[in-house]
Amino acid sequence: MNFPKKHLYLLSLLSGLLLSAGWPMYGFPFLLFVGFVPLLFIIDQLDARPEQHHRFSSFQFSYAAFFVWNALTTWWIWNSTIFGAIMAVLVNSLFFAVVFMVFHLSRRSFFRQSDAIYLLIVYWIAFEYFHLDWDLSWPWLNLGNGFAMYTPWVQWYEYTGTLGGTLWILLVNIFVYQLIKNILQNDGRRRLIVNVAKTTFLIIIPMIISWVMYQSYEEKGVVAEVIVTQPNVDPWSEQFVLPSSKMIEMNLKLADSLITPETDFVVAPESAIQEDLWHATIGQSRAVKQIRGFIDRHPKVSVVIGASTYRLFAEGEPLTPTARKFDDVDKYYEAFNSTLFINKNEPVQLYHKSKLVPGPEKMPFQRILSPLQNLAFDLGGTVGSLGYSKRREVFSSIDGKFTVPGIICYESIYGEFTAEFVKNGANLIFIITNDGWWGNTAGHRQHFAYARLRAVETRRDIARSANTGISGFIDQRGDIMQASEYWQPAVLRAQLHANNDITFYTRYGDYLGRISGFLAIFMVLIAFVNGVLKKKKYNREMSGEI
């Protein structure tokens, strides 16, 4: 077959549409199993007619596909920042296309190209792993996230994390591609039967294993009573102009409506405290005193709540890269997006958000891109590069039975990062966020769904408090126990099980990514050497030496 160039673009469009239609909140994740198939057929066409296409043609066709996928699934960023949305779609599509191009060029250099197709798995997983921890980290579309609404399919994430889902998706895509190619080329009935069987088994067996795990799993741990509040304050017009005391009062009144003598925790959203809190005097702040008044009436309760906090640098203290200078005095300070943990017996404890959103909270490659900082949008109350906690802090309840983190917003899409809190002793997971910036779009629904994957990976019950929703509770199987409506005030109470067992994934993290990263470097080197050898052989043939 020889497709015209315009048909190759139609195949690119098909890939983008399939991946988009398979993503959470839009469609059915089964489509992810065929989303890369049209791109693989494009590769065949490029290799079959090299004289009609330049060496890097795979980039232009794959970029078109990945642009469609990124645009259709993350367009909602536009509601908070036009510049951020444009950059997220353009740059993330660029990264995906580069990975696909490297796969194509490497495949060309291998002598057995039929086997080299599996390089796609190695390179893609290596990239997803790398994309979890660098200045432009944006793993929202890491393929394994695609099963967030279908956690009964992926209970084995407690062993592999989401990179296991990426492996599954890519391997099935390759098998489907080989099956379709077998049919088109009429390669024989026996081979067809083998390809149908192995593709079917690859899809069905992991799902059967997962379903058995799902059905047999039982909640573990002693019970904690947790309340989450959803004040539903519009971040565009209310949250940052209302008096701080009013914001706190809204959350505490909601909690009071459901609180019992058995309540262990009240969890309020990110940035629920709008008073500027300085570390040195945080205990004397009006906001903390207001919350302590609530705790005096409910002495068993610990309050987890979000705030913007600040630390003043001492005279002569070395400045960090995120230090800021006061306009009117020669002094420096550092700003944080923080979780406060407040109970009756201890001073205020703090955790500072560590996975910062590129742009609003952390200027990537700061020395180069700092002039663009004013184009970023404030997603938490403090603009500019923020400070962060170096340790995954966890906090204990009054009776010591329960140990929890205060994971903030964007951090909850990182599996290994979340697992580090569990390794530090967390037997429950609390997430606080403010997803009101995006409006009633797929953004906040995807964000809530991704938390279900964290529950499966760590086998921890999750309490989630979101300013405008979705707030709720998720059990250790990833099932939604309760969920609020979006853009409505709400308060929920649940009995959560505090599990102390450590899963394989929690212990070893994204080992699939580390293995793939090593293999990717090795395979690129092999491809380079093979490419040199093939070129030398070709030159010798052309000169008549062979």
N-end to C-end Cα span? 32 Å
Can you tell me the CATH architecture of the largest domain?
4-Layer Sandwich
Find the CATH superfamily of the largest domain: Carbon-nitrogen hydrolase
Quote the CATH topology of the largest domain. Nitrilase/N-carbamoyl-D-aminoacid amidohydrolase
Largest sheet: 8 strands, mixed
If helices are DSSP runs of H or I spanning 4 or more residues, what is the number of helices?
16
The portion of residues forming beta strands comes to 5-15%
Shape assignment? globular
| CATH classification class of the largest domain | Alpha Beta
**Rg for CA atoms:** 26 Å
Report the average pLDDT across residues. Answer: 90
Number of strands: 15
**Broad structural category:** alpha/beta
* Poorly predicted spans: 373-382
Helix/strand layout:
Elements: H1 5-21, H2 37-48, H3 57-74, H4 82-109, H5 113-116, H6 119-130, H7 157-160, H8 162-185, H9 189-216, E1 222-230, H10 244-256, E2 263-267, E3 273-278, H11 286-297, E4 302-312, E5 324-325, E6 332-342, E7 349-352, H12 366-369, E8 395-396, E9 403-404, E10 406-408, H13 415-423, E11 429-433, H14 442-458, E12 462-466, E13 472-474, E14 480-483, E15 490-498, H15 504-508, H16 511-543
Parallel strand pairs: 1-2, 2-4, 3-4, 10-11, 11-12
Antiparallel strand pairs: 1-15, 4-6, 5-6, 6-7, 8-9, 12-13, 13-14
Helix pairs in contact: 1-2, 1-3, 2-3, 2-8, 3-4, 4-6, 4-16, 6-8, 6-16, 8-9, 10-11, 13-14
